[in-house]
Design brief:
With about 350 residues, this protein is an alpha+beta fold. It has helices at about 10-20, 25-40, 45-50, 55-70, 75-85, 90-95, 100-110, 115-130, 145-155, 160-175, 180-190, 225-230, 260-265, 275-280, 350-355; strands at about 215-220, 240, 245, 255, 270-275, 295-300, 315-320, 320-325, 340-345. The strands form three sheets. A five-stranded mixed β-sheet has the order 4-1-5-6-9. The protein has a two-stranded antiparallel ribbon with strand order 2-3. It has a two-stranded antiparallel ribbon with strand order 7-8. This is RuBisCO accumulation factor 1.
């Protein structure tokens, strides 16, 4: 009995010889390169033994895999016969597509005698359109319509007449459905007809972060403040989704950034103060950032938060005036709201000083 099995070395040499002589089809060459690589041969070794450069090896290997897929996908016999003889560069560009789209683009390439550069652009257009859930009315997922849709979108942004003419010619060349062709022809008509001014888009913006939506709170007055004025402020009724506030009587309001502490306020009231008056009612000193004068601040309170805790300041009544106090134990007097935060103004930047030339001692 004769043993017909070959050693790996002999099989590798057979494949090298086939590639050197370029025996068989390019599909077989790609399969041979892939087999050699699986046997441990590097692309450089294959190049040195056969003359096939690494970039060419990659092209024919990928192209051969695409061709094998076309065979398994029952592509038309005429299509398979054509690409078995030539077209590795074209099939290489179809690697990004599904099997169905590969067959469709390959048929288009054969019918219109396209080169690999054109096929690369078409493959990208087909890939892009495959990710879209809905297409404009009349466009189909045929590769020709994919190109027409790509052209139609590009025409919306182009102003140069020569560039638009080139795009229209390309769109009409590939458009498959009547609707796609009509859409491209309409662009041609618009280009020939006198241009009319197009209305701009509305400046639309959507909130994407909660803190961008401010909280509008009522201002009770300025320190020193009578407790009656503090209590008289009605609870603000905010209307979703934008936090609009309706006021039954003349009131003063202030918008506070929508930080979480502000968002959590249930019955907010703002007291206008400065670093001097705040010290008088709270006993706490806040250094002014305004040269030679007190700095205005906003004391933001939540009248709904009346449960004592030792980490907060509270509004209380003293001699019918608003006072702000901290208690180390639960007090006997009535708490009229918790101080959520004291909001300072943005630091004042001296623009005149910034324009002066600095003198730097060496």
């Amino acid at each position: 009995m004769t043993d017909n099995t070959q050693t790996p070395e002999a099989e590798a040499e057979r494949l090298f010889e086939m590639l050197r002589r370029k025996e068989g089809t390019w599909v077989q060459w790609g399969q041979a390169c892939q087999q050699l690589q699986k046997m441990g041969e590097s692309s450089l070794a294959i190049f040195e033994n056969t003359g096939f450069e690494p970039i060419q090896q990659n092209q024919i290997m990928v192209g051969a895999q695409v061709y094998t897929g076309l065979v398994s996908g029952d592509a038309p016999a005429a299509l398979l016969a054509h690409f078995e003889r030539k077209g590795s560069d074209i099939l290489y560009e179809l690697r990004i597509l599904s099997l169905v789209d590969r067959i469709a683009v390959a048929e288009l390439a054969l019918a219109k005698e396209l080169d690999c550069i054109e096929v690369k652009d078409i493959a990208k257009a087909v890939k892009d359109i495959s990710t879209m859930a809905n297409l404009p009315e009349g466009f189909t997922r045929h590769p020709g319509d994919a190109v027409a849709f790509q052209v139609w979108k590009a025409l919306q942004a182009k102003q140069d007449s020569q560039e638009k003419a080139r795009l229209i010619a390309r769109g009409l060349k590939f458009a498959n459905s009547n609707a796609a062709r009509v859409a491209i022809e309409r662009s041609l008509t618009d280009m020939i007809a006198p241009t009319t001014a197009r209305s701009p888009r509305l400046p639309v913006f959507r909130y994407d972060e909660e803190h961008l939506l401010p909280r509008v709170l009522p201002v009770a007055g300025e320190l020193p403040l009578e407790i009656a004025d503090y209590k008289a402020i009605p609870m603000a009724d905010e209307l979703p989704p934008f936090g609009m506030v309706k006021s039954a009587k003349e009131s003063t309001w202030v918008a506070i950034p929508g930080w979480q502490a502000i968002v959590d306020i249930q019955d907010g009231v703002v007291i206008l103060a400065d670093t001097n008056t705040l010290k008088q009612v709270s006993g706490q000193e806040l250094v002014s950032n305004v040269p030679s004068q007190p700095e205005q601040v906003l004391v933001i309170c939540d009248r709904a938060q009346r449960q004592w805790d030792d980490s907060s300041y509270f509004v209380v009544e003293q001699d019918k005036q608003v006072k702000i106090q901290w208690f180390d134990a639960a007090p006997e007097i009535k708490l009229l709201g918790r101080v959520v935060l004291v909001l300072r103004q943005m630091k004042i930047f001296d623009t005149a000083a910034a324009q002066e030339t600095w003198q730097i001692d060496e």
